[in-house]
Amino acid sequence: MLAQGGTEKMARVSRVLLAGYVITLLLPLATINHLFAILLLLPWLATSGGWILDVKEFALGAKYRVYQGFFLLFLLSAISFFYSANKEDALSALAVRLPFLLFPLVFSTSNISEKHLHFLLRLFVYLCALVCLGCLLFRVYTFLYGNQDANYFYNEGLISITKKRVVFFGGYVSFSIFICGYFLLKDAVTRLEKILLAVVAVFLFLILFLLAVRMVLLITLAVGMATVFIKLMQRRRYVLAGTGVAMMVLAFVALLQLFPQTKSRFQSIGNLKYSFANQNKLDHFNAANQAENWNGLTLRMAKWRCALDVIEQNPLIGVGVGDVKDEIVQAYQNRGFLYAVQNRFDPHNQFLEITMATGIMGLLVFVWLLYHSLHLFWRTQNWMAMAFMVLLLFSSMTESLLRTQEGVAFYIFFWCLFVAYSLSKETVPLKKLVYENN
């Protein structure tokens, strides 16, 4: 057992490691980010809490319901390894899912204070703004002195130097906007910093339009409208509440006129009809929309139908984490969906992805995990976490967010961080690693 002084030193080490993890999460430093994730275990191992954690309490205690859900998801994935035909892909999939074990362990013995949570959130939002500014300046430079194609200011072209996929980077930006809103509504920062955060929020919202990730844009708008409506209704400003929401919608539509490529992305999903035999390519934001092409929605609808084909044949335990890609490609083949076969698309839906891999049991555990997380955040009035979960939930309907390391590294980390903070608000158990700044 560490002495009091040793525990405080480990707490300081943990704060540094958490900050390092958040910083490397946003930068093109994936290997270093993985290293910080592993190093986060050291304070957990070095403290008495890490070694003497009551296994029975952790496994069965109501307090640890969310952490138990992460463990169960990993356990089902690990079991599915044995009936996966593609062992190599199964091992890769389990490696990606290791944070399902790592972060619950790291945060299960951590008492996250509001002060430390705010520090990490502010670090994330300011770094996100700086990275976005760097990306924008880089594109301005290349436009002036290189390829003068304005389309590189949009979507993946804008963030190419980060080496991040646009769907995940869009999530970073949306989450950062939520953080700005959170601090603007709280008396946790100075008036000067509130002005700075308001400027950052506007800048990041414009960046979000350039990224043109449709679902993330709609989620951000919906959360913003809900927040304005609820706050004004609580103050009994009923007319202003309705007016405010209407003005936000009009502002959104007006901004679309200023970003023609983003507008094109939304217009492309107007067609809902598709044929598996269609071998035309996907409509791109910088080209004219053509009804005979695939668009983002019809392509997903076709992939979801094929994913359901796989689930219908393996409903109980799924096909195993190693065979998801192979099985859905075979489903594409069976449907004559050659465009998807050639590109080996994933299901683009996290709920279907989990069900394909681990069956109905996996889906039930995932829903159970979501329910207990939302219940905990609601009970502790952790509104920042609620906004984060809205982003996670609705993005999961159109993307397989937890299939790649990039998605797991972001979503599982902040998910567990918010769980630890909510649990710390309810009680401060003994033998906890206290993250308080002295």
From TrEMBL:
**Alphabetical UniProt keywords:** Membrane, Transmembrane, Transmembrane helix
Q: How does it sit in the membrane?
A: Multi-pass membrane protein
What stretches pass through the bilayer? 21-46, 66-83, 119-145, 166-185, 197-226, 238-259, 351-371, 383-402, 408-424
- Is Transmembrane helix included in the keywords of this UniProt record? yes
Q: Which stretches make up the O-antigen ligase-related domain?
A: 200-367
InterPro entries xrefs: O-antigen_ligase-rel_domated, WaaL-like
The organism sits in which domain of life? Bacteria
In Pfam terms, one family for this protein is Wzy_C
Q: Where in the cell is it found?
A: Membrane
Mind telling me what this protein is named? Answer: O-antigen ligase-related domain-containing protein
Native species: Nibribacter koreensis
Q: What is the lineage of its organism?
A: Bacteria, Pseudomonadati, Bacteroidota, Cytophagia, Cytophagales
